[in-house]
Amino acid sequence: MLVALDLGAADYAESLQELALLAASAGATVRAIVKGRRDRPDPALFAGSGKVREIAAAIADSGADLAIFNHELSPAQQRNLERELGRRVVDRTSLILDIFALRARTSEGKVQVELAQLQHLATRLVRGWTHLERQKGGIGLRGPGETQLETDRRLIGARVKTLKAKLVTLQRRRDVQRRARARGQVLSVSLVGYTNAGKSTVFNALTHAGAYAADQLFATLDTTTRRLYLPGAGNVTLSDTVGFIRGLPHPLVAAFRATLEETIHADLLLHVVDASSRVRDDQVAEVNKVLAEIGADAVPQILVWNKLDLTGIVPGVDRDEYGKIRRVRVSAKTGLGLEALRQALIEAAASKHPSTTPDEGGRESGRERIRNIHVA
Fold it and tell me: What was the pLDDT predicted at 368?
């Protein structure tokens, strides 16, 4: 059961559609959707008593065993809703965390997800469930006078400390690799963008890496880096990173900071945009907001409008008033415009290393070739 209340946001319809995609990505089957409108959330139940009765009736009719709210619920609201509905209740933040846990493959990704989950769970333990407030007792359960709630808090705190130490070690390893690339004067490029914009498809099209790509939210969690050779520019490192989404939980951003370091220290960001989306401008703004949050807003960007095969847009290159490439229009799925994107990377590499020499045989340099690309 999906529950989405309109609190006056302009992107309400798109947000509801996104919630359905999130639920599907988590493996849920949507039985019904309950909509509503409120000026502000109800402090106790978020949706108000009348709407909660409507949700309960819809659950009974549809046989749904889970209620997913398209909002962030307080611990008290979640507890009260579960009591009223007789079903488990999940908010948007918990749903995203669940998808991240499902997608994590590398040890680093799993550490980051577990850290974010524990930090989120710690807030749920505050005045959360009454069984956690009872004193431990009984045969084999008599502890040192602390409640179950205190024990859980202590264990979570210890585990969080261990996970943070692991992330520090992983971050040092990444720093060593990054310094080695910097000494080799290799252009570092990171793919960023809204989730499901096609970053992994662009990555595979450029590097032939075979990274996992699917038409689902958060298909990529673990950063993948490959070296790409470009004639006239030499080697370039290209990193595929986790996608962003509106309302991305702050603990998740903090936990994934080690992975996002590749973005912070990149020489260039390829900001992949789903050109077929009606809210592409809003998605670009959301990505830029997260980039600012992690300190990567000063890194130069090239917008990559992807999925042209779903639109009537013509592939090509757009430049700003200074002659710098501002946007490249491509379809990574069909290959349209990819040569222009490669030439854009060649030009970026040439601007970082002006000493880049032309290809052997007197062929024109990457900078000269990019000027000859037809701008549609």
Answer: 43
Cross-strand partners of 67? 89
DSSP secondary structure code for residue 122 in this structure: H
Helix (H) or strand (E) holding 148: helix 148-183
How far is residue 149 from each of residues 73, 88, 161, measured CA to CA in Å? Answer: 20, 20, 18
Residue 114's pLDDT is: 87
DSSP 215-232: SSTT---S-EEEEEEETT
pLDDT at 93: 87
Note the pLDDT of residue 212: 58
CA distance 186 to 34: 52
What tokens appear for 232 in the block? 């006239």
Mean pLDDT by 10 residues, the chain (376 residues): 91 88 90 94 94 96 95 91 94 87 77 84 60 46 58 84 86 71 73 90 86 60 80 85 77 65 84 93 91 88 95 92 93 94 91 54 42 39
pLDDT at 225: 83
| Gap between the Cα atoms of 196 and 333, Å rounded | 13
| C-beta separation of 131 from 247 below 8 A | no
Cβ atoms of 262 and 243 within 8 Å: the answer is no
187-193 and 268-274 strand pairing: parallel
> How remote is the C-alpha of 12 from its chain's centroid?
20
Within 8 A by CB and 6+ apart from 53, the residues are: none
Residues 6+ apart with CB under 8 A from 169: none
CB–CB of 343/375 below 8 Å? no
Closest CA to 19 of 120, 110, 99: 99
